[in-house]
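Quick one, tokens below. Sequence please?
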């Protein structure tokens, strides 16, 4: 039998420790952000390889839902990280919202429209055009306590499949609780993520092509005014000759901090727009949402991957997202 000297055993143990330390160092971890995240908490990759990742939403059973737009379905991530199909044939659902009746409202991209997609027997169309002109690419949505629906249409962009799309007409829209459709803004280059603060008197809009998160004051009838730059994004970078922040999905926590998926990762701002820190991710996040027990887990989806980030901060419980 081969005998191993004490010195060799010691060297082996040291090597194992070094290997473990190196492996741990390669795992993405959270930075210390006061009130938000502790230092060194591992960011867990739940699964990679999804086909289009958008629209995360805390669901009523404690799970997280998100949309696989290219696969035309909604996916469920259970509290145990199990992954399953929640809804097939979602009409290319993108952003999601959950109303008080448990119905899932989605902005949809295959046949561009806004409406209820689940339960199937309660599917309903709310809007598919504005002043007779069809929506182009409904992107994200947030539901107010009044029952009003705010959503974005990011417009068309050239792609390999469609290098010459129709002229882009991006916009921010509002559907009142009674069903009236209003356009709130048509002067944003690429409106994307949309969110409300806790009091629902401020509307946030992410402009993917811009350097800032935009904010508006909300009136009692749901209309908006006082457009302003709310927060300057670290993600503002140049790539392939074009400048973009990559600003996408938005979330808020119970302290009214705003979380932004951008080119830099997840950027966090206080209620006045002050930068608090950035949680970097291996792949660019596209959208984010708090879910899980006490809403102390931030989920991020993007570029086909889904991540789970334990935080100190607690998501706002007044809305599903």
């Amino acid at each position: 039998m081969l005998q191993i000297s004490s010195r060799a055993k010691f060297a082996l143990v040291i090597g194992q420790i070094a290997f473990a330390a190196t492996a741990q160092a390669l795992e993405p971890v959270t930075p210390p952000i006061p009130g938000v995240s502790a230092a060194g908490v591992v960011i867990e990759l739940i699964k990679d390889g999804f086909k289009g990742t958008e629209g995360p939403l805390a669901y009523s059973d404690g799970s997280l839902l998100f949309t696989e737009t290219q696969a035309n379905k909604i996916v469920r991530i259970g509290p145990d990280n199990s992954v399953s199909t929640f809804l097939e044939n979602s009409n290319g659902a993108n952003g999601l919202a959950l109303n008080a009746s448990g119905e899932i409202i989605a902005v949809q991209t295959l046949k561009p429209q806004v409406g209820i997609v689940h339960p199937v027997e309660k599917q309903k169309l709310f809007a598919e055009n504005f002043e007779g002109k069809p929506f182009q690419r409904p992107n994200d949505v947030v539901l107010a306590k009044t029952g009003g629906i705010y959503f974005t249409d990011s417009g068309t962009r050239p792609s390999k499949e469609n290098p010459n799309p129709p002229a882009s007409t991006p916009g921010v829209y509002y559907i009142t609780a009674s069903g009236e459709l209003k356009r709130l803004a048509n002067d944003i280059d690429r409106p994307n993520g949309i969110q409300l603060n806790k009091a629902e008197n401020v509307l946030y809009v992410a402009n993917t092509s811009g350097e800032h998160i935009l904010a508006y004051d909300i009136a009692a009838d749901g209309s908006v005014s006082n457009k302003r730059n709310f927060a300057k994004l670290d993600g503002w970078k140049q790539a392939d000759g074009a400048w973009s922040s990559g600003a996408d999905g938005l979330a808020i926590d119970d302290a009214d901090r705003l979380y932004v998926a951008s080119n830099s990762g997840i950027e966090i701002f206080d209620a006045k727009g002050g930068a608090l820190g950035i949680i970097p991710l291996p792949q660019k996040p596209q959208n984010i949402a708090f879910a899980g027990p006490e809403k102390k887990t931030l989920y991020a989806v993007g570029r086909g991957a889904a991540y789970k980030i334990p935080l100190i901060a607690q998501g706002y419980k007044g809305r599903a997202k």
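The chain has a mean pLDDT of 92. The chain has one domain: 29-310.
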